[in-house]
Amino acid sequence: MKKILLIVFSLTIIFICNSFSQEYKWYKGNTHTHTTLSDGDELPRRVVRWYQDNNYNFLVLSDHNSLTEIKYLDSDKNDDFLLIPGEEVTDSYNKKPIHVNAINLKKKIDPQHGNSIVETAQNDINAVRKAGAIPQLNHPSWRRPFTDQDIIALKDCKLIEVYNIAKESNNFAAGGFMSTEQIWDKALSKGNLMYGVGSDDAHNYLGDLLNTKSIPGRAWVKVRAKELTPEAICASFENGDFYSSTGVNVVDIKITDKEYTLEIKADPDPFVSFTTFFIGKDGKILKEDYNLKASYQFKGDELYVRAKVFASTGDFAILQPVFLKK
Ligand SMILES: [Zn+2]
Ligand SMILES: [Zn+2]
């Protein structure tokens, strides 16, 4: 068998994680949230309370072109809940929305604009990077500003919202349009390393929390980090050491030079079943595994391998790609 070299950016970190996994913990968080400081219907402190009460460990408040002051919202630095400052840089080109989150931002950024969809998005991404924050391309299929070629062309944006769970985000394939997940695979197949984010983009906290609204708690990320600090969480985002979920709980992920393995937490209901799909270039399904401990042995010619776990409840989790080189 040919020797396979993994060229994941996070290779070293993944191996460190595996070697000292007891030092690392999983933290549940949401990277995309609105309050009354933009078009959300609830005050920041009540929004924060909602996520605290629902067992989240961190939250990014990302109001439109507004950086929320978090000093008085996250006063206890030693508890198990962290607020990370953020903004949804809200731009457009030719009336098409281009929204880029800035995660762990110190100073508000204005939309940068540009002369095309790609230029506008890239200018916003560059501004987020220049400010020392992490860019996240939000809901790329909302009102469909981007073609798959546009997403392939973007640089230096490792986070893409593959599942912004708000209904109008058009996550799924229909009418001849690709799903956001298929667009993600297009970008990966061209070597553009992007990590898939799930978020709820919550706007509505009042009244009946119906799925027709943008309600909290329907998609999130689980980040593996050494500690609950903005720096540690952001380092894991950059390294792809996280997964996104709508309800499936993955308790371990290991990637070596030979295989990609993961462990799913069993549902309390023994009749809930799981399928793990290991996916490669062009979205090709490489293997289906029905076990709680699922694994895939690299052959070497896949270009990349990622995993998706689907539960019989309809919940799913997407795990991050690892790139291979012969
Ligand atoms: Zn948006
Ligand atoms: Zn938003």
Q: Overview of this structure, please?
A:
Residues 1-5 and 7-20 have low confidence and may be disordered. The protein is α+β, with helices and mostly antiparallel strands and 326 residues long. A hairpin with a 3-residue loop joins β11 (250-255) and β12 (259-264). It has a 15-stranded mixed beta sheet that branches. A three-stranded antiparallel beta sheet has the order 11-12-15. The chain is globular, with a radius of gyration of 19 Å. The protein contains six helices and 18 strands. The chain is 18% helix and 31% strand. It starts with a strand and ends with a strand. Bound molecules: zinc ion (ZN) (2 copies). The site of one zinc ion (ZN) has 4 residues, from loops. One zinc ion binds next to loops.
Helicity, as a percent range:
10-25%
Taking all Cα atoms into account, the compactness measure Rg is: 19 Å
Tell me which ligands are bound: zinc ion
Low-confidence stretches: 1-5, 7-20
Helical region count?
6
Report the oligomer: single chain
Strand proportion, as a percent range, falls in 25-35%
Average pLDDT over all residues: 92
Number of strands: 18
Helix/strand/pairing category: alpha+beta
Features:
31% strand, alpha+beta, 326 residues, 18 strands, 3-stranded antiparallel sheet
What can be said about this structure in brief?
This protein has helices at residues 11-19, 44-53, 117-130, 148-153, 180-189, 230-239, and strands at 5-6, 25-30, 58-61, 82-93, 96-103, 134-137, 159-164, 195-199, 220-225, 242-245, 250-255, 259-264, 274-279, 285-289, 293-297, 304-311, 316-318, 322-325.
